[in-house]
Specification:
This protein is of the alpha/beta class and 367 residues long. It is built from 13 helices and 13 strands. It has two domains: 126 residues, Rossmann fold (3-Layer(aba) Sandwich), CATH 3.40.50.10350; 218 residues, Glycerate kinase, domain 2.
Length: 367
């Protein structure tokens, strides 16, 4: 039996890599003769680097960058040995993983560190950069990222604006020229979010509250990002206010489009392409996937839903493991909550419980 193990992160408890390891350990304990191919998956958010490191031969590069609050952290990205492409997980710089809940600063947190990652990665002259933008703690439209690359932002009086999303309300003029190291590099934004920068479904109203914004701060950020989009349109001729996907990561995706000419693409598709997912699927007899909470939305283009669809298309059986979940239709679903109904305990011991759940399932299989 050849098994492709392709989970995404179990949010709040296990990375995609940790989930894949727990599933593999459970299967090996019950079926030591099965051949396992471990491929942690991501849609461009947290876990992207884990997916790449597991999937293909790549070198990990570390460099000091600023987090969303301007503190020094060690950010990592990977360089693929096969073609020199670079994969960046923006959250390594501006991510929620670096910021405690009581430290969140939705008005002034910024993406400066993402620009530092990009500039460092450009030194190897990659043909292509894939930037996964999920898991951010920022709402600055990518202005901080651009600032790290040399952009300057001015108000009507000619004063340079401070960092963060809120000061963009006073934006009048942008000074910008593409840094030489970035010339000729194709930039792809990996996200499966389709929200525009502005409006009811935009970055401030949808994602601001997740990053600590009060209702009043959401209104403040919405106005600031709308002004930012106006000036960006005047300067670059690009309407990021209404561009699908531009609102991802507090507008970082829109900033990458405006300043670096990036293209927004499906994060899952980019990860699948780079990792050889379809070839590995074709070689498998069975697909095992999973996530923290499976529900109807999971089937609407999210990682597990895409994997289920592709497996069905290839006529491969699928088994789904989740922390908790609702009816998965005709997909075989097993949940940690069925073993441990206490959610706190389930989160604290997710790896052991997932391994046991998988082992119990595998013992009842033939092959």
């Amino acid at each position: 039996m050849r098994v492709l193990i392709a989970p995404q992160e179990f949010k709040g408890s296990l990375s995609a890599d940790e989930a894949a390891a727990a599933i593999a350990a459970g299967i090996r304990a019950a079926q030591p003769d099965w051949m396992l191919d471990s491929l942690p998956m991501s849609d461009g958010g947290p876990g992207l680097l884990d997916a790449m490191r597991k999937a293909v031969a790549a070198d990990t590069v570390a460099t000091p960058v600023q987090d969303a609050l301007g503190r020094k952290v060690l950010g990592r990205y990977v360089r693929l040995r096969s073609n020199g492409d670079v994969v960046i997980e923006a959250a390594q710089a501006n991510g929620l993983l670096h910021v405690k809940p009581d430290e969140l600063d939705p008005l002034y947190g910024d993406t400066f560190g993402v620009g530092e990652l990009i500039l460092d990665a450009a030194s190897s002259e990659p043909p292509r950069m894939i930037v996964g933008v999920g898991g951010s703690a920022t709402n600055d439209g990518g202005a901080g990222m651009a600032r790290a690359l040399g952009a300057r932002f001015f108000d009507m009086a000619g004063n340079e604006l401070p960092r963060g999303g809120a000061p963009l309300a006073n934006l009048e003029r942008i000074e910008w020229s593409l840094p030489k190291p970035l010339e000729g590099i194709e930039i792809l934004v990996a996200t499966d979010v389709s929200n525009p920068l502005c409006g009811e479904n935009g970055a401030a109203r949808v994602y601001g509250p997740q990053k600590g914004a009060t209702p009043e701060q959401v209104d403040q950020l919405e106005a600031a990002l709308f002004r930012y989009a106006q000036v960006v349109r005047r300067h670059f001729g690009i309407d990021i206010a209404n561009l699908a996907g531009a609102g991802a990561a507090g507008g970082l995706a829109g900033g990458l489009v405006a300043f670096l000419g990036a293209r927004i693409q499906s994060g899952f598709d980019l990860v699948a392409e780079t990792s050889g997912f379809r070839d590995r699927l074709a070689a498998a007899d069975l697909v095992v996937t999973g996530e923290g909470h499976f529900d109807g939305q999971s089937l609407q283009g999210k990682v597990t839903g895409r994997i289920i669809d592709l497996a069905r298309g290839a006529e491969k059986p699928v088994v789904l493991f989740a922390g908790a979940g609702e009816d998965a239709g005709d997909v075989e679903l097993h949940t940690i909550s069925s073993m441990e109904p206490d959610s706190d305990a389930a989160m604290s011991h997710a790896a052991e419980l997932l391994q046991q759940l998988t082992s119990d399932w595998a013992k009842n299989q033939s092959g």
